[in-house]
Amino acid sequence: MTIKRIDTYQDNRFSQNVLYQHGCFLADEVPYEVEIISHSEAVIRGADPENYPAIIEDFRFYTPHITRFYDENRCIVKEFTARQILTLQLNQIQPSQFYVDEDKIAAISSFIQEPDDIIIQVLPHQDRYISLDGHTRLYYAAMKGWQSVRAVTETADNWVYSFVEEARKRNVHTPKDLMLVSHKEYVEKWYRFCDDFFARAKDK
What we know:
The protein is of the alpha/beta class and 204 residues long. The protein has two domains: 3-79, no CATH class; 86-203, Conserved hypothetical protein from pyrococcus furiosus pfu- 392566-001, ParB domain (Alpha-Beta Complex). It has six helices and 13 strands.
């Protein structure tokens, strides 16, 4: 089975709320949704329940703090051990990215209402934490004047340290330093950087 995560915010095969959450997937071109309903729970829906476990596994790559999944009848589909969730000050977090897409800011503002709604993945490093994802949410927290967010710790490949080094060269040391750009600029600048970086790494 081929699973593809939908990264756009416009697709009439899915509900708008779940598109904003990035919880939409195609499994062999058939639509499935994973809708977050609390800080640790989600509802999964789609044509074939036998495909749910594989979709949940893919979904949890991005959201490991979601540990209980229900079907539409509120029956438990799958449950995982609860993760320890930290509360971190924004100034404790070193981004591993430089740009934020303004379209993504507009999308997350529809479902993030308070600091506790933000749970990101981080890597402990030199008395601080490297953010491995959630840079849009972090920038949004800084925009709102919030002082802290929540996080779960994860491991990462060594390339993340090169991304951090590049971020620091660009004077990105905390989430408020991230650069807000249009969607077009984000695609051009961030995707180009990533493509060039991994192409060079492959050639070495």
